[in-house]
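Usage example:
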Amino acid sequence: MRLIEKPWIWAWVGTISIWLVIASLSGVSAGTEVLTAAASFGTFFVLVAIGQMLVITLGPGNVDLSIPACMTLASTVAMKVMNGSEAMLIPGFLIVVAIGLAIGTLNFALIILLRIPPIIATLSSSFLYLSTAIWYNRGLRVKPPEALADFATGKIGVVPLLAIAVLVLTVIMHFVLHRTYFGRSILAIGQNPKAAHLAGVPVERTRFMTYVLCAVLAAICGYFLAGFSGGAALNMGEEYLLMSIAVVVIGGTSVAGGFANLPGLWGAALFMFLLVTMLNTLGLSAGYRLIFTGAIIVAVIAISGKKR
Amino acid sequence: MSRFLTVNTMRTLLPALSLAAILAAIFYLQPRTMSYFGLNLLLNLAIPIALATIAQMFILCVNDLDLSLGAFVSLTACITATWLYDTPVLGVLALAGCVLAYAALGALIHLRNLPSIVVTLGMSFVWVGVAVLILPTPGGKAPEWIRALMTLKPALIPFPIIAAVVIAIIVHFGLMKSAAGVVLRGAGGNPLSVERAGWSLLRIKVTMYALSGFFGVLSGMALVGLTTSADANIAERYTLLSIAGAILGGSQFVGGRVSPIGAVIGAVTLLLTGSFLSFLRLNPDWQIGAQGAILILVLALRVLIDRSDKRS
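Running the assembly step on the lines above writes:
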């Protein structure tokens, strides 16, 4: 396959062109700083988008709308339990993973037991998670342990530590998706669930593991995001609903399922951050920024879409 | 099971029964609501929510999902409270433009074969952006005639009930009983056969999106008539409310299976759920959660009904 035909190429072309615009407007050194910021924020987008991508790849109708609520609940509980104590870092992390496991299991239980579309299942359950988070901490912000904040905001040179960690995770997931039985099962189910079933792929077990993995990644993202931004807040997950889906689609993963790629996630995550930064640099008011953000997302999707 | 209580009638009755149950619970908890004035207060916001749910239902009917509806209703509310009040001609043109924009969206989604979820998520930014430009800070005024219409006090039956019934019946006859309605719904049920029979899928999709936009505009206008002012996020919750309401009312995600009467009932049920929970003096922390739980409960009941269908 030629480079131009790779599904992820457009996200990277967009990222590079926007960066060039920013660099030409405000100079190369400012451009480097923007790139570091993009890597910091993009890391969180990629972390949730990996899970969302695997879920979307399962085929039409599969999407997890409970990601923001899952991030909020996991980080709220973890921050309160840790209460700023560094000795609790590992237990806090384990709690986050456990909450992710529980949420993923509950989501899938609703999907399979009530036989309702995942959109409605994860939407209804997200109300429950959000309520639990509100009840648990009444929206108070608890400071993260210092070590967690240091790690989440730490850098080697200009490269954020967390970005390196998630980059390693991306490479691992790339291997998992294309080389392991689990990953290939996801792709097979997305391409044709019936054929996958007849070929002996454990369809429901794979779907179950995918939803759980998505929830766990969202919970972990919430943990580090709370460390990054000085505590868990009730609305911390808000923008991640759109972002998780937009990053997956702009990254060249098929919304119809069956075809996924990881390089596109990074391209799309950086693209989304740089896009907002560019609109800020241009000095546009909030209204125009929103309009351009939306219009560019729709335009990118429309261009990458296939003609009927 | 008796002849009259077949699975099919139970499935149709489920939304109505849920509504009756929640209404009975409210009357029990707060008998004073059982009056003209009480019902008026209780159901006040039912009209804009029912209209938004109908708008969502048109999109569900062609197997799509609109995640921008709340933002769109907010925008039309802002236009109603500003331009339609100050310069009615400009206001009418802008609202017509909103409907056209929805129709264009339908064409775009069909022609490029795009996922409606992503396109509408992106468009929600655009709608909010335009709304912020039109009305940067909360304010505006409701046009007098809308205000007068929304505060009508007909004899005997409160206005929200009459309006809800009228909306349900009009859409029911338009979509479920007319020849054109059959074709429109058929495009959700089996697009291929509708196309083979000579109908243009593009025109059907554009029609459905335009209808959805039209009811979205009506929802925004009705909302301003009640609140008398607007802001750019006034109807944010309508996206989820409209999806949940339509599903509660028996609409399905695929196959063009929708029910306008059910959608209106579902919307009213969801609205009453909020009142019910506050009458219960439930901890406000659990309000959103309880709505999610009720949604799950009704869906579980539907599964039980479907199962007994298979058994018999």
